[in-house]
Design goal:
about 150 residues; alpha+beta; Maf protein; 5-stranded antiparallel beta sheet
Length: about 150
């Protein structure tokens, strides 16, 4: 899974520079039709992504990697959630883009901002859809000996 690989790269990079520290790396992306929707390049790309998601269900994947180089601690996990969008027309998309900064969001949306405009429902971890699944993060950190 791409997000697990990216999370591990991030955590490994920091852990190599801070070997005694417990490092958490994470990466989240949106998948639909076998393709990843990362952060849009521009507003045109945001509109394209929101049109693609309109009226459909997609998957949000997050990879979490925990590292501590000093004792070679390595733990990885992946989390999956599903999000169903309302059917959106161009006016709906323009209203959403006017209210939410879409350029720094995977899939060009934020589940916690103006949810009522775009989201019909979801399955799985809400915090995963936001970008960091809190329960799963707590669980992996606890397994690594950190008291949360």
């Amino acid at each position: 899974m791409m997000v697990l690989h990216n999370a591990a790269l991030k955590a490994d990079w920091v852990a190599s520079r801070r070997p005694e520290s417990l490092i958490l790396g994470a990466d989240t992306t949106v998948f639909i039709d076998g393709a990843a929707l990362n952060k849009p390049k521009d507003l045109h790309d945001s509109r394209r992504m929101l049109r693609l998601l309109s009226g459909r269900t997609h998957t949000v994947f997050t990879g979490i990697a925990v590292r501590r180089a000093a004792d070679r601690l390595e733990r990885d996990t992946g989390i999956t959630s599903e999000v169903t969008f309302k059917a959106l027309n161009d006016t709906d998309i323009d209203i959403y883009i006017d209210k939410v900064q879409t350029l720094d969001k995977a899939g060009a949306y934020s589940v916690q901002d103006h949810t009522d405009l775009i989201i019909a429902g979801y399955k799985g971890s809400f915090t995963n859809i936001m970008g960091l699944p809190l329960e799963e993060t707590k669980q992996i950190l606890t397994q690594c000996g950190l008291r949360v």
